[in-house]
Amino acid sequence: xxxxxxxxxxxxxxxxxxxxxxxxxxxxxxxxxxxxxxxxxxxxxxxxxxxxxxxxxxxxxxxxxxxxxxxxxxxxxxxxxxxxxxxxxxxxxxxxxxxxxxxxxxxxxxxxxxxxxxxxxxxxxxxxxxxxxxxxxxxxxxxxxxxxxxxxxxxxxxxxxxxxxxxxxxxxxxxxxxxxxxxxxxxxxxxxxxxxxxxxxxxxxxxxxxxxxxxxxxxxxxxxxxxxxxxxxxxxxxxxxxxxxxxxxxxxxxxxxxxxxxxxxxxxxxxxxxxxxxxxxxxxxxxxxxxxxxxxxxxxxxxxxxxxxxxxxxxxxxxxxxxxxxxxxxxx
Length: 332
Ligand SMILES: NC(=O)C1=CN([C@@H]2O[C@H](COP(=O)(O)OP(=O)(O)OC[C@H]3O[C@@H](n4cnc5c(N)ncnc54)[C@H](OP(=O)(O)O)[C@@H]3O)[C@@H](O)[C@H]2O)C=CC1
Ligand SMILES: CCCCCCC/C=C/C=O
Prior knowledge:
By secondary structure, this protein is an alpha/beta fold. It has 2 domains: about 1-125 and about 300-330, Quinone Oxidoreductase, Chain A, domain 1; about 130-275, NAD(P)-binding Rossmann-like Domain (Rossmann fold, 3-Layer(aba) Sandwich). It is built from 9 helices and 15 strands. It has helices at about 55-60, 130-140, 155-170, 180-190, 205-210, 225-230, 260-265, 285-295, 310-320, and strands at about 1-10, 20-30, 40-50, 70-80, 90, 100, 105-110, 150, 170-175, 195, 215-220, 235-240, 270-275, 305, 325-330. Helix 4 (about 180-190) links the parallel strand 9 and strand 10. Helix 2 crosses helix 3 and helix 2 crosses helix 8 (about 285-295). Its EC number is 1.3.1.48, 1.3.1.74.
């Protein structure tokens, strides 16, 4: 019998999440039995903390549920020949240090995964956030060489890949982020222009200065005031990929913003929301491309690693506050 540590949503978040909204519990896992439903025992090695957990907790969870989430986990006992002991998988096991599985929802790390690459990248650049950048740019923004792409939350898991893929695609890239350290990182990984949205005196001016001709594509991770301003600087026939709205996830009262219809009409813009799982049938294609670019050094990565399963809530809250450069990961 294995005792598993799990994090539970004790109280639905009101406004910004607090550590007191979570409870660390211990649960007993049943032993695997021959012919039983549960075929696999796993231990989490790296866990992901992601912005979606904030809105999805309200939509999909009730108080007392184990927090939703994904991890890179190692198989430590197996009664399923498709998964050998010691193999690594990406799992949707929630915030659990150990868990059991029937194997249906597990994805083995690609067999071509190089030893030199951290397995945690399967939660970031070569995982869900990387795929979000890939499909958002190719299928929603439909970027073309020579175009100008704007991305916010640009130094994060999704944004940093968006900028680099847009450069690979022959575009000019403008990014913004919430600290000077992040801005320096964006320049280092090839962004043409980058600014700190927290310290510029006018967002409008900063956007205009970075691209006086405006933007063909806007990959929006933030929503709110930033998006309301940026929409006015789109070029005619521009495309806006509405990926996330992190500036609004913690609002108890919905923000009132300016309205987008007039620039949408006169610039004949296309604005489309999307969820990365729409392209689940092309997951392998996306992961293969991302892994190749990482191995060629064309896509750089950075991880913000928090040590210790007991620090999951702090890592999650820190990511929402912008403490992460690159993908926020917890190492058990
Ligand atoms: N549609 C989809 O399928 C998916 C959507 N997403 C969305 O993409 C976005 C980025 O996710 P991800 O890359 O994982 O997270 P990040 O790694 O970018 O981390 C979140 C970042 O958001 C920024 N941020 C926080 N609050 C604000 C605010 N009020 N205004 C502006 N920026 C803020 C912070 O950076 P800074 O210091 O720059 O403020 C923080 O580091 C999120 O909105 C997420 O919900 C993610 C995955 C899939
Ligand atoms: C359990 C993995 C689900 C991933 C879907 C993420 C969609 C994100 C939307 C906004 O952040």
